[in-house]
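Example S7 (structure tokens).
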């Protein structure tokens, strides 16, 4: 141990505990006592007579902790007590079922990348799958119910398959938030589940799958303080898409009183800037035209991996919260911040659009807002989850701001980025929410005029502060009514917002065919609104006579002619580039300003 730093000791111990958990993994029947010695009596131990010692992990960790992109996690194929061939998939076919948010899609791509490099194949047909992995969501009760329903269907498939394949039964695994929340309880309730893998344990999937061949369930739900999968290039599930998601941080320290995320995804940690920039460069080389930076709290990003920035970066040492916002946790110091990351990422390719989600309103310093305003490839679109428009409810939610502070931020953002598209999340019927409080939320929605809103009826989650300390006192029917009212007020307001865009010429990144009509194409404008337009050849550039078809990944200028509450409809005018379009806009704005002086 001499000469080993404290964080490294922690990492070593984590790896040690993690691996010993695997060694002592109990048979399904003893899962109730998952961490007891009873597990070590299972047949698994006979295959592992010489389990790893603490020294194995110290030796392995000390090899990897210092490089920018390294993790303190041992590569699975270097674990000394498992034969490499047992970790190989030998062409077994894996089917992925993905539920929940975009983070889950990205996590699936990471899990798939790990299995892909371990000899597994991917299938999109459940009937030919050897393994079905379900990426799960726990945010609301309804999300989990969908997964239980899915497991009911898969039970039938598994039974059929075990009859037809005689002896190589279908393996079913639960990954992600629900795995983390319920742990081995999943296997107790649904005996046909073979694998339960939490969000920080995907590197362990090859070993876990190898383990399931013994007929026992494999469970790894250890959360990590440093896992960001920085060194894993996700293999994109939708390879045809011209946009991609890049994970920049994981976890959440905010502890909003209603939210399960801090418990299922663990503490906030950021991926080193250099590894993110590297991934964005690779995506740009592959022709990707839009990258969305992903995380539970993207704008709390803080990369402390490089020692020269760990104590502070330029003027930004302590957290600069937006005015009127506070956190439940102590101020954090040092590291490269979200503005530093946005700066670097947006310089990779000026033709690549940059978006980010999901941010928290507390972390919007002017550096970030200025950068969004200045860089033509950072989209003028900000998700600003409000959750409620009533101060008592916001306090009970532990959001750390008042409606007044939130509105001041909205005005401030609109001062700096006048044409910004704002979106938000709202919860209807949170504990103690009165009709008056609900109407204040309706009022906030009307005042801000969001371009998009996600609204959810409150769903009580175990472990959270609200579960322990507050009463879920709004009846379900009332939650549903308020949810409906918020949704219809949003639709009413957004229709006006969309109709105000009729006549504008907008830059649209083409995604592909419209789902509604074979004659139309669909794409997104800068504010992330869907734009549908006729599929026809248009000039190569503004004043060209040469016509060119419009294909996915192209930037076209579209004249908006019609709007509903959901989409804009338009006529394509000509092909362009992001830089040309923005130059032209700046010039016309200059003319506009000059003529009004
Ligand atoms: N009930 C309802 N909605 C919730 N959200 C998070 N937790 C809950 C819950 N328990 C919503 C919040 C958050 C979004 C991702 O999900 O609005 O911003
Ligand atoms: Fe949940 Fe709040 Fe963290 Fe968002 S910021 S993930 S709502 S705890």
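Recovered sequence:
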């Amino acid at each position: 141990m001499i000469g080993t730093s404290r964080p490294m000791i922690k990492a070593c111990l984590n790896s040690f505990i993690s691996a010993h958990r695997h060694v002592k993994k109990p048979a399904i029947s003893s899962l109730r006592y998952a961490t007891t010695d009873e597990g070590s009596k299972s047949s698994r131990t006979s295959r592992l007579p010489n389990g790893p010692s603490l020294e194995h992990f110290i030796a392995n960790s000390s090899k990897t902790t210092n490089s920018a992109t390294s993790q303190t996690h041992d590569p699975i194929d270097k674990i000394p007590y498992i034969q490499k061939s047992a970790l190989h998939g030998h062409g077994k076919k894996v089917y992925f079922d993905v539920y929940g948010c975009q983070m889950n899609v990205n996590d699936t791509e990471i899990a798939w990348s790990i299995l892909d490099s371990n000899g597994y194949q991917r299938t999109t047909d459940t009937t030919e799958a050897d393994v079905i992995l379900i990426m799960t969501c726990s945010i609301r009760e309804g999300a989990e119910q969908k997964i239980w329903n899915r497991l009911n269907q898969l039970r039938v498939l598994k039974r059929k398959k075990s009859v037809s394949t005689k002896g190589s039964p279908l393996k079913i695994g639960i990954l992600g938030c629900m795995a983390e929340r319920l742990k081995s309880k999943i296997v107790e309730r649904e005996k046909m589940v073979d694998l339960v893998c939490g969000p920080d344990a995907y590197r362990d999937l090859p070993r876990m799958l190898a383990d399931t061949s013994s007929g026992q369930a494999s469970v790894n739900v250890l959360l990590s303080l440093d896992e960001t999968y920085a060194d894993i290039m996700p293999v994109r599930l939708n390879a045809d898409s011209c946009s991609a998601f890049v994970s920049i941080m994981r976890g959440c320290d905010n502890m909003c009183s209603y939210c399960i995320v801090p418990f299922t995804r663990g503490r906030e940690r950021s991926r080193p800037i250099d590894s993110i920039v590297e991934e964005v460069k690779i995506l740009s080389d592959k022709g990707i035209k839009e990258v969305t930076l992903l995380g539970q709290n993207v704008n709390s990003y803080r990369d402390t991996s490089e020692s020269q920035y760990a104590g502070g970066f330029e003027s930004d040492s302590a957290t600069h919260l937006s005015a009127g916002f506070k956190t439940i946790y102590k101020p954090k110091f040092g590291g490269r911040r979200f503005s530093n990351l946005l700066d670097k990422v947006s310089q990779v390719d000026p033709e690549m659009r940059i978006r980010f989600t999901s941010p928290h309103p507390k972390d919007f310093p002017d550096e970030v807002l200025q950068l969004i305003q200045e860089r033509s490839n950072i989209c003028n679109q900000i998700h600003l989850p409000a959750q409620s428009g009533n101060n008592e409810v916001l306090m009970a939610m532990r959001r750390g701001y008042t409606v007044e502070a939130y509105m001041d931020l909205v005005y401030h953002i609109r001062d700096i980025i006048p044409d910004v598209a704002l979106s938000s999340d709202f919860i209807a019927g949170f504990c103690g929410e009165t009709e008056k409080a609900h109407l204040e939320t309706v009022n906030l929605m009307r005042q801000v005029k969001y371009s998009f809103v996600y609204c959810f009826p409150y769903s009580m989650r175990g472990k959270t502060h609200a579960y322990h300390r507050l009463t879920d006192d709004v009846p379900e029917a009332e939650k549903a009514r308020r949810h409906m009212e918020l949704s219809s007020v949003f639709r009413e307001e957004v229709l006006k917002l969309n109709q105000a865009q009729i006549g504008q010429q907008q830059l649209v990144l083409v995604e592909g065919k419209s789902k509604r009509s074979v004659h139309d194409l669909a794409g997104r404008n800068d504010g992330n609104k869907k734009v549908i337009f006729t599929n026809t050849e248009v000039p190569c550039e503004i004043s060209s006579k040469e016509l060119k078809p419009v294909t996915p990944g192209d930037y076209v200028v579209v004249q908006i002619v019609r709007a509903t509450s959901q989409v804009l409809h338009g006529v394509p005018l000509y092909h362009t580039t992001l830089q040309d379009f923005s130059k032209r806009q700046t010039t016309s704005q200059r003319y506009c300003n000059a003529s009004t002086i």
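Notes on this example. The pocket of iron/sulfur cluster (ligand 2) is lined by residues 252, 254-256, 259, 261-262, 296-297, 360 (CB under 6 Å).
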